[in-house]
Fold this protein.
Amino acid sequence: MSDYQNDRGNNDASITNPSGRGSAENTDRKGQATPATDQPFLIGNAMTGGYGKGPDILNDCTVAVNRGEIAVIVGPNGAGKSTAMKALFGMLNMHGGRVVLDGEDISTLSPQDRVIKGMGFVPQVRNIFPSLTVEENLEMGAFIRKDDFRQTMAQIYDLFPILRDKRRQAAGELSGGQRQQVAVGRALMTKPKVLMLDEPTAGVSPIVMDELFDRIIEVARTGIPILMVEQNARQALEIADKGYVLVTGRNAHTGTGKELLADPEVRRSFLGG
Ligand SMILES: Nc1ncnc2c1ncn2[C@@H]1O[C@H](COP(=O)(O)OP(=O)(O)OP(=O)(O)O)[C@@H](O)[C@H]1O
Ligand SMILES: [Mg+2]
């Protein structure tokens, strides 16, 4: 059973994903009904590549997230965490490895086509439109949808009530934590099947970080698997079903969040003892 199911008590799942698998009531999320596959829902497998004609940043790097789970990528600055996320999203020149989403090889798809396939991505930087209002940001998030997205918007406002209050305000005027809520909300507007977050708690206070983690857990409980990069390694691994420590574009340590938190080498090198 996952730690955060015991420790974090928010059962108010408000972003519903009909194609996902709700897990709030399930005491053993790994035991829930899934198609006959033990493959991760999203995997970047043995990814090797870099930017343009530059050197390889990722070297045989594998990251993945299972259905109904939260996976966390940690590691030092410059380790290639954001690069791994960009590779999953189709923004890198890869000459090794592949990206598989729900059993389908999507390695050759453009980022936009990956969004259509169900990927929601919140990049580390420039993840909102500062001059647009909060609501306009959410509307931009719905760019691939042809149906009525007002219900999704209402669900996002239920998840992040402060955004409803500030919906007519320019997103650039919001606090750091509020801007991250806009960014996550924007990604949720496509009703993604998997959510990728690059440092969702960057630059926010510990209290706001806890609050954001609670909301992220809430999203995960609606059945949307979450793969996130975090610099708050200890706190992130506490809520992670699976953790990856990357160093110089390679997998240095992989395990459950609990295993990594207990690993003396990981503790010494990455968690400050
Ligand atoms: N657009 C780019 N073009 C060329 N090189 C890049 C680009 N973005 C990142 N790099 C290089 O790739 C390497 C990994 O960077 P990346 O941003 O993936 O690290 P990170 O683990 O996300 O670091 P941080 O914790 O600081 O966010 C670095 O050496 C960086 O200089
Ligand atoms: Mg980064």
In short: Residues 81-82, 124, 198 surround magnesium ion (ligand 2) (CB under 6 Å). Residues 206-221 form the longest helix (16 residues). The chain is about 35% helix and 20% strand. The beta strands are 42-50, 56-65, 70-74, 93-101, 104-105, 119-122, 194-198, 226-229, 242-247, 250-255.
